[in-house]
Structure prediction request, 259 residues.
Amino acid sequence: MNEPKKLSSLQELIFDAPLYAVYEMPQGHFHLKDNLEGYCVGCRQQSIFKRTGKSVLEGIPRPNGGTSCGEIAYRCARDNEHMIRIQVRVKKETIEKYGQYPPFADVAHGELRSRRKGLSEQDGREFYRAIGLESHGVGIGSFVYMRRIFERVIKNIFDEVKEKEGWTEADYPGRIDERITLLKDHLPSFLVKNARLYSILSLGIHELDEQACLDFFDVARNSITFILDEAQRRKEEEEERRAAEHAISSYKPATRVSG
Prediction:
């Protein structure tokens, strides 16, 4: 398993931490406002959540060498019936989230889709599958999903521009570096500048051990996020550009009737 990570806030523990991720126990209590912001599965949008009980460290005593468990619950401000509950285990100097309802995958996937409207169902599902594997100490498996997303970004962009460029499927190269060269003017600049990421992901699948993959996972995850975000922005800008060009080319001034 990974070494315990730093825990920045109760917000991170409830809405961002996957199951079984182990964090260093913060010193003292979390000094946070009662309200947190996160994705509500019931409302299907971002919402404010109000604490229903004590803070995590107030409600769960720090054991001396033993283990203590407890639950933290927050209620959606939009609908009192919508709640998020997590079960945590405190052991020595660490804290671990071992249970959650609604499931972490539903919350994480929904939040990603709400913030990134253009993200495909498959990309969202595999992105958080990679995060889930990493949280269980499975670094090589997490790299498989990250590499699949990387490859799919390139293929999707090829499919979007091939007609405009006069390409056919036969023009799509077999090697990833050749694909990037062919599509460099259409791909996210982060991907083009950091194409070595693909080699690292491939190395992780074929040669690196689990720990080496786990050590690089945060960099890989953030990089894939940059690529997905930039790809979506470029797509939206292109759609807006086309709409503006169409409006300009089809514009006809209103005919004035002389009196």
